[in-house]
Amino acid sequence: MTDQAHQEVHTASRGTYGSRRIHAELTRGMDVTVSEHLVAELMSLAGIAGLPGPAKVKRLRGIATSDDLVHRKFHRLSPNELWVTDITEHPTREGKVYCCAVMDTFSRRIVGWSIDSSQDSVLVVNALDMAIRNRRPVPGGIVHADHGVQFTSWAFTNKIRSAGLMPSFGTIGDRYDNAMMESFWSSMQQNRGQSQPCWKPQRHAARTEPSCMPAWGTDCAYTAEARAKS
């Protein structure tokens, strides 16, 4: 680990991350082998610290943050202007798996996804990486998510910015600020998860994806187009 790595993560978090979250970013997001104790010691020597726990949970619910670039206005006129992303969980015969998907709000197509047995920053970064490789978006697009720790992580937001895109986070405590993804998950779980199971057993989760994901991206787009013509 370089002497500056922990300071770079701390700066990227706007000074909010403490040793625990910086350690998580270094080990999971940057593949750096380091102990949390050493991270805490280096932070102390550098004179930096994260925000205390209570300061985070006292943020007002239902109030939009400065990072909300969407404000529930999901309609776009061309592809790759706005992507929305979210995580869902689904039971299998061998246990629970987690799936992250990225949707282009212009076409309502799923452009990237990832599935794994744990929900961490790796899960969401992999889904975003697939979307970027599939679409190769021009700079200036928006990637919108909720305030989950996976999405606000340094690894995820850095991935967004390195592609020339802008991160956006909805209102805290308001599920309607990502209503398009909520609707997608609900439809997929009800119509595919029950009548046509598409989820792999947990032991295959890390290296496979739900076979219905591309189809549901197409189905959602078709439904939206049909509704617009009716």
Question: What's the gist of this structure?
Answer:
The chain is an alpha/beta fold.
3D structure, described in words:
This protein has 230 residues and is of the alpha/beta class. It contains 8 helices and 5 strands, in the order ααααβββαβαβαα. The protein has helices at residues 5-12, 19-29, 36-46, 53-57, 121-135, 154-162, 179-191, 213-229, and strands at residues 82-92, 95-104, 109-116, 142-145, 166-169. Strands 3-2-1-4-5 form a 5-stranded mixed β-sheet. The protein is globular, with a radius of gyration of 19 Å. Residues 53-66, 193-199, 201-212 and 214-230 have low confidence and may be disordered.
Give the topology, please.
Blueprint: H1 5-12, H2 19-29, H3 36-46, H4 53-57, E1 82-92, E2 95-104, E3 109-116, H5 121-135, E4 142-145, H6 154-162, E5 166-169, H7 179-191, H8 213-229
Parallel strand pairs: 1-4, 4-5
Antiparallel strand pairs: 1-2, 2-3
User: Structural class per helix/strand content?
Assistant: alpha/beta
Strand neighbour order, sheet with most strands: 3-2-1-4-5
Oligomer: single chain
Distance between the first and last residues' Cα: 58 Å
**Total beta strand runs:** 5
Number of contiguous helices: 8
Key attributes of the depicted protein:
alpha/beta, 230 residues, disordered C terminus, 5-stranded mixed beta sheet
